[in-house]
């Protein structure tokens, strides 16, 4: 039986690193075959997962000797963290590995949506059309970006937005008013209400919790300034998707980019059919070649540390 099971995609070079020291079973589709996964778990001391493998309930019974869960990402929605802590299992998120990738997608979507449909004119131009009149967009320079959730990714987004001459404000009740990060970044701390009422563009960087579920509700969206841009690369369920689709269809909002959804993949009866000024991506914010490499090797290093008697600083124990 393997020491380490990897049930979803992991950078091959990181898998090879682990194989030098441990017996590793790597099958990136194993999360789809739970009976097989659970049958392999009796002697496993670590498992490496992404979003699909559920670490809760019957999983714990199948993995009685588990010491570490390597999370190839940072979201913990699919992990019963208190259950792991109770059993002495270290949870190892790849903290910091994908921050640049997520921040770059945020800024790319923001710029495309503020500028308008400019980047979607290729078919018309190729066909000999010249739709200049309807492609008059706006500049991001001088506009106010409201960041909701001022953790590590939010701070990356802020720095890039400031480089585009945007004014950046941020709301995060978990970052104290006197935290030096506000002075260091030049970002003004405000309330959620201030962001909803004053930002020209809003970018969400929050975990999904009972407090943040449907945080951006129909009532909140109704408060946005006309033409506001919304970007959600955080977690599905934070935004009321139906209310957002209605506001875009009515022309009250300037556009939105969604990379995450309450149900993934998105069901066929989703509210986004025919909605204008909307960019949808399939949860790829953290998926770049560079981020995958960083995530894989950070996770491998964390698992190795736990199995050899150390606890990384980023571990949840």
What descriptors fit this protein?
12 helices, 12 strands, seven-stranded parallel beta sheet, alpha/beta, single chain, 317 residues, 14% strand, five-stranded parallel beta sheet
Can you describe what's shown?
The protein has 317 residues and is an alpha/beta fold. The chain contains twelve helices and twelve strands.
Q: Assess the beta-strand content as a share of residues.
A: 5-15%
Q: What is the number of helical segments per DSSP (H or I, 4+ residues)?
A: 12
Estimate the global geometry from the Cα principal axes: globular
N to C succession of SSEs: EHEHEHEHEHHEHEHEHEHEHEEH
Main beta sheet: 7 strands, parallel
Number of beta strands: 12
Q: Runs with pLDDT <50, length 5+?
A: none
Gyration radius over CA: 22 Å
What percent of residues adopt helix (DSSP H or I)?
Answer: 25-40%
Average pLDDT over all residues: 95
Lateral strand order in the biggest sheet: 8-7-6-9-10-11-12
How far the N terminus sits from the C terminus, by CA atoms, comes to: 25 Å
- Structural class by helix and strand composition: alpha/beta
Task: Break the fold down into its secondary structure elements and pairings.
Blueprint: E1 4-6, H1 12-19, E2 24-26, H2 34-39, E3 46-49, H3 58-62, E4 68-71, H4 81-86, E5 90-93, H5 99-115, H6 122-126, E6 144-148, H7 152-163, E7 167-171, H8 181-185, E8 188-189, H9 192-198, E9 201-204, H10 218-223, E10 229-232, H11 241-249, E11 255-258, E12 278-280, H12 289-307
Helix pairs in contact: 1-12, 5-7
